[in-house]
């Protein structure tokens, strides 16, 4: 089967309406490959019938599965290390060494968390500053539009190839070998405990109030057009506490967008 230009535009418009991802013409072959997976899974014979099935909302779960297929999920532990170096400096201000933390409230949001490496990296940084994670009111919200990657993140089990970017100290401290497996490691429960994983479409209503001290929304906006980027940045800013930080990907910039945040350093902004 061939995906016609007209039908490609229809699917592209649907994706944009549903989640803000902008599929330009260069993504036609990618979309066709992802559509073929959904045709095999659903038993639907052609693209036209599948499109009609999606917009009919006859089975609302299928639009979720379709968007799962469209989203790209490349990530690894401590991706963009410069961010985590700066994050550790922020933590030193939020959590002064030797201070008591009982009344301390810390909220962090990992938006577009993929398979969980980012929020677990955040949690490891925090654990290096606080020996007892139960000693303060600490929560990390980790969201993604894909239920497929969220299932991996919640499980928190990774092959040894995923841990290659971590030194032996971090592996021994924050992971445990999964018995009966070859090269599988699970994140320790005390890190999992402070993270809540949840599906969230960034274009839809947010089921939380905030405010957040820090938001990581990295390598998400590259899929959006300028209008959607500007709307998202200002929406996230409204959920930041005064003085809170927003991290975006190093390939992203807020240049040319109208927003209330102040530039701190490349890919880091503050309210």
Distance between the ends? 50 Å
The side-by-side strand order for the widest beta sheet comes to 6-2-1-7-8-10-9
Q: Give a quick account of the main beta sheet: strands, pairing sense, barrel closure.
A: 7 strands, mixed
Please give the count of helices: 10
How much strand? 15-25%
CATH superfamily assignment of the largest domain? Vaccinia Virus protein VP39
CATH architecture of the largest domain: 3-Layer(aba) Sandwich
CATH class (first level) name of the largest domain = Alpha Beta
Helix content: 40-55%
Mean pLDDT: 91
SS elements, strand count:
10
Taking all Cα atoms into account, the compactness measure Rg is 20 Å
Q: What structural category arises from helix and sheet content?
A: alpha/beta
Low-confidence stretches: none
How many structural domains in the coordinates? Answer: 2
Explain how this protein is built.
The structure is a single chain. By secondary structure, the chain is of the alpha/beta class. It has 2 domains: 66 residues, Chemotaxis Receptor Methyltransferase Cher, domain 1; 190 residues, 3-Layer(aba) Sandwich (Rossmann fold), CATH 3.40.50. Helices cover 41% and strands 18% of the residues. The protein contains 10 helices and 10 strands. The protein has a 7-stranded mixed beta sheet with strand order 6-2-1-7-8-10-9, sandwiched between helices. A 3-stranded antiparallel beta sheet has the order 3-5-4. β4 and β5 form a beta hairpin. α1 runs parallel beside α3, α2 packs across α4 and α5 crosses α6. It is globular. It starts with a helix and ends with a strand. 30% of the residues are buried. The mean pLDDT is 91.
